[in-house]
Amino acid sequence: MLCYSSPTQNAITEDLSLSLAEYSVFGSILTFGAMIGAITSGPIADFTGRKGAMRVATVVCVAGWLSIYFAKGALALDVGRLATGYGMGVFSYVVPVFIAEIAPKTLRGALTTLNQLMICCGVSVFYIIGTVLTWRTLALCGLIPCAILVFGLFLIPESPRWLAKMGREKQFETALKTLRGEGTDISQEAEEIKDYIETLERLPKANLLDLFQRRYLQSVIIGVGLMVVQQFGGINGVCFYTSNIFESAGFNTTIGTITYAIIQVVVTALNTLVIDKGGRKPLLLASGTGLVIACLITASSFYLKVNELAPKAVPALAVTGILLYIGAFSAGMGAVPWVVMSEIFPINIKGVAGSLATLTNWFGASVISYTFNYLMSWSSYGTFIIYAVINALGIVFVAKVVPETKGRTLEQIQAAINA
What we know:
Elements: H1 5-16, H2 20-48, H3 50-69, H4 74-102, H5 108-129, H6 135-141, H7 143-152, H8 160-165, H9 169-180, H10 187-201, H11 214-232, H12 235-240, H13 242-248, H14 253-278, H15 280-306, H16 313-333, H17 336-344, H18 350-378, H19 380-401, H20 410-417
Helix pairs in contact: 1-2, 2-3, 2-4, 2-18, 3-4, 3-6, 3-7, 4-5, 4-17, 5-14, 11-17, 11-18, 11-19, 13-14, 14-16, 15-16, 15-19, 18-19
């Protein structure tokens, strides 16, 4: 969904006679849909369950892809893109939370990062097949993962923590046994979950203003802050318009896009192997450092191009910077903020706090994706210098504010942060 606008830009613009402004709306309106999805994702997931929320998101995504496929003008394109964005907004909150709530603590980071790997695989497949398929056929391909998810939801249990919160005692124990294995003793884990939820249930139902109470403020700052750092560092500008960046730098767009996609998958896959051993914070710091260096390299390539200096070096520097950027992002800043977000909020505020963090993420994505083309028109090298500064500030934020959460249960993490 996210990268659909990158390989299809020229084809859609020509077929439907769209202006740059119209296509910029199409590219960025996904993020407005995602913001609506983020606002509603917490309440939907709390009311219908984690699986119920995923079913709702899937239905909306199917409608969105069909609207894009049958589009004859900008309006149907935008409606379809808005709908798929809504689904993404719901998924981006519900899936990490669901994984964190069902995973054992020793695998929680790896399994949540595996979700990011699947996203990267989907993005990479779209990038690659988008170079050979028409934009309408590519939209139909978006229906395939929707069908797989609908079928897969029948095979997995609901979140035990949500079932416990809803007072469904028998279903809670059945789900936990299914997840841990029939022969596993779940008594201690079940007791810890129930005790913690009973403690939280004594507190009043949380609303948005409650998030700014002292006991919750630290976790809100961490969750929202990481989403700001992730998005305003420029990822959606680079992701949405990768092909155009390579083209403007004079590099072969097909080769660049395919290489970009492969690096994204490989690095994210390696990330799943180390996140529960190396920890969340070191990955974030290493990722942020790589992003700063990558932005500066890319900025230097465009500076040379604008000033007609060393023209032969421009394509090599541009592709090096962009590939390093996606490699560094995939190494930490792509997945880890979602892992931490799924870990730090107590279950009584998880719906509203998770919605706020996800809304912040997609608001940042909308700002970056909509302004990217205009910033590049203003100053191509200045754009990447701005992103470098933001990523440098992100390193400071992670170093000073974000705690290490590996190897602890959700209850232990939340009790320590919100003490």
